[in-house]
Amino acid sequence: MKVEADGERERRTWCYVQRPAVYEMAPCACGNSDTQWSEFAKHLWCDKCQIDFVPEHNGIFDGPILLYTCALMGISFDRINLATGAVEPFSVDGDER
Ligand SMILES: [Zn+2]
């Protein structure tokens, strides 16, 4: 088990190409749902409050993800590598034919 020091938060190394609202993640306590990925893992950034916060729920990530439904809805799971800025396309393991 990893123990974090007080006030030390794990930094995000990647984020999805689309905004948290696309994945139906919980809004900020102020009601703003137009949030961004925080630089800290498991956190989102609220522009209005200028805070990093942990969303109350993680939207579609909380349940089984229906990949084909998401594809139809235009939801992408491609990631941006924050160190390099490169987009890493999402692929389903074993789906290569
Ligand atoms: Zn807010």
Q: What is the total number of structural domains?
A: 1
Question: How much helix, percentage-wise, in residues?
Answer: under 10%
What's the total number of strands? 6
C-alpha Rg, in Å? 15 Å
Widest beta sheet: strand line-up: 1-5-6
Largest sheet: 3 strands, antiparallel
The span between the termini is 38 Å
**Oligomer designation:** single chain
Mean pLDDT score = 90
> Count of helical segments?
1
* Order of SSEs: EEEEHEE
The hetero molecules present are: zinc ion
Class inferred from helices and paired strands: mainly beta
What percent strand? 15-25%
What form results from the Cα inertia axes? globular
Pick out the low-confidence regions. none
Folded structure, characterized:
The chain is mainly β and 97 residues long. It is built from 1 helix and 6 strands. The chain has one helix at residues 67-73; strands spanning 14-16, 36-37, 44-46, 51-53, 79-81, 87-88. A hairpin with a 4-residue loop joins strand 3 and strand 4. The termini are far apart. The structure holds zinc ion (ZN). The site of zinc ion has 6 residues, from loops.
